[in-house]
Design a protein that fits this description.
Number of helices: 5
Structural class: alpha+beta
Radius of gyration: 17 Å
CATH superfamily: Gcn5-related N-acetyltransferase (GNAT)
Shape: globular
Number of domains: 1
Number of strands: 9
Length: about 200
């Protein structure tokens, strides 16, 4: 059971998964702030340093853009999870979510991803999943994300074939009256701009 309350001094949401006090600051963090916090996180043999998205050569070009913001979770003053996003022209792009190995399985990132979906609102959003394990994919599908079979031509070679591409709020993307574009057209335009 998870007890929820609000810190009266900061207004931050607090949850206690499995008896561990986790704070979810209301502040939106920059990539630089997340990097600094992550690189000073509680040591763990499986914890890798944070690498700026622009420097992640294995990411598709669209995913290497600097995120607009991150939500984080803290255990005392140490970061235990983060979840980011980037607003593109007509669509949002998920900019990664990660949980410290000591805190995996406590559903901390579920709360951060829900906060991120609130940022998306009724707008469409895309994710490129690096983790192709079924349990990870299912955690997105059960909250409204849909699998997109493949990148449209001529962009199929922009990302490794072992990625899973997800879309949130597909109907909004396909009925974008302001842009009067189908999802495929929006998707192609974004990829062209971010090559």
């Amino acid at each position: 059971m998870v007890d929820e309350n609000i810190d009266p001094l900061t207004g931050e949401k607090i949850i206690e998964p499995a008896g561990i006090l986790i704070k979810f600051p209301t502040k939106i963090y920059s990539e630089e702030e997340v990097k600094k916090l992550w690189d000073n996180a509680k040591p763990h043999p499986d914890l890798k340093p944070y690498v700026n998205r622009a420097d992640r050569g294995h990411f598709p070009p669209i995913s290497r853009q600097k995120p607009d913001g991150y939500f984080i979770a803290l255990h005392f003053d140490k970061i235990v999870a983060h979840c980011g996003w980037k607003k593109l022209d007509h669509i949002y792009l998920g900019a990664g979510s990660k949980t410290h190995p000591d805190y995996v399985g406590r559903k901390i990132n579920n709360y951060l991803r829900e906060k991120r979906r609130n940022i998306f609102g009724s707008n469409p959003a895309m994710l490129f999943l690096n983790n192709t394990e079924q349990w990870w994919l299912d955690s997105f599908l059960k909250v409204g994300w849909e699998v997109v079979d493949e990148l449209p031509e001529p962009y199929k070679d922009m990302a490794p074939p072992d990625r899973i591409y997800l879309l949130y709020n597909k109907d909004a993307a396909m009925q974008d009256d302001k842009a009067n574009k189908s999802f495929d057209k929006v998707f192609n335009d974004i990829l062209k701009v971010n090559k």
